[in-house]
Amino acid sequence: MHLRRTPFTTSVDEMMNFVAIFVYMGIAELSSIEDYWAMETRVPQVANLMSSKRFSLMKRLVHFNDNTQIPGTIDQFFKIRPLFSLLNAAFRSAPQTPKQSVDEVMVAYKGKTAGNLRQYIKNKPHQWGFKLFTRASENGFIHDMVLYQGKTTQAAHDVPLTSEQQAMGATSQIVSVLFSTISSSTTTAIFANNCFTSLELVRNLKDRNCTGTAMDNRVGQPPLKSINEMEKKAVPHGTFDSVTSGDGILALRWNDNKVVTLLSTDMGVEPMSSVHRYCSDTKRKEQVSCPAVIKSYNAKKGGIDKSNMLVHLYHTPLQSKRWYMRLFAFAVDLSLTNAWVIYRRDCKALDVAALSLKNFELQVFKDASSQKPVTSHPRRSSTDPRTSVDVPKPVRGHRSHTPADSVRFGFDPSQFHAPVYTNLQTCKYCSRKGNIKRSNVVCRCARSTCALMLSRTALLPTMNQLHK
Fold first, then answer.
1. pTM for the full model?
2. pLDDT by residue (tens digit) across 447-460?
3. CA separation for the pair 16, 33 (Å, rounded)
4. Is 69 in contact with 90 (CB distance < 8 Å)?
5. In 3-state terms, what secondary structure has residue 247?
6. Which of 230, 378, 409, 427 could disulfide-link to 450, CB 3.0 to 4.6 Å?
């Protein structure tokens, strides 16, 4: 038996329209993809650009790599790897700020088809999804990404490890690789949270002035007051203890709302400043002392948090059984927010007013979809305002009755007899075994699923056209 396969062809312009539709869906999000083409919720900006069938076909057939090369590869992100390699190459070459930070990013995904690529992080807004390690400037621009896939993460990444990096721990390797791709020589400081910071990492990145909060078991047991001692109620907020090693690494423990341990080769304790913290005893905010390195860390580490906030403002609502399509949607969103950050920087340099992120994405949509639109007809549904009459649902196994002649032929003016649109149903009068007829035109009075019952004689030619 030979299966007939229809060849699929597309063009650059059509692919631009395909991506542009996703951009617009992120701005004007509806409950389902079909709603953009449905008659009662039709969105002309989307529906006039591409038909729903063509859009669904392209979404089903789009690929990012050659699946015939999968056997033998250790890269579990093989299906989406070329796209992220392309983005990394572009993002690494973008202008970078002197302050850089590294953190985890979760791409939300609850499906089961991704296997062990789906990770769980308890304290994240999206607890289930794909985990990415990213490096960003303080303005929110993501410069580099590492897709986490367990033990083979570094082997599948496009940056090889040096002999010094191979001797590091797993988290230290990731941070070191992320910062090895820094293209700017003006980078003066690196910030990381307690998931990455360790004494080993700070020593290896000493030339780039690393600062980060650290877990107590990763700081090398410096001669500081213990956490239990700092947490005593008699110890006021703002109390700190610090020590500097012979190679210039500062270890500091500060009593904030909870005790914070920090390592740094960038700044010291001085100059001291103050911050406001809520006091449970006085029931109001009070000023507490704050070392300079703490204030610098809090001010400069939020680049990735800012990027996450921007990405989720107008995220692409792409749902698919193929797990890597969710990463494709994230790549579209991240590319837009990174472009907006660069655009805002240039507008500030030129002293001109900048568009908001939403208006910027709308302009990108207009530029990407500037080709000749394809007009598509709106889909009818049972909630069409033109068919708001109550149409009885057919009962399985029951044959619809024939209306009286006074209704069928208009003898009684009080009985308005006309066809209405509803969901596609099987015609009980025209269908035969092996020859099923279906129609979305129903007789309101006869409760039959075919307008042929209006008149077997007068309306027969017209209703035959409806079946066709």
1. 0.75
2. 444 434 433 334 44
3. 18
4. no
5. coil
6. 427
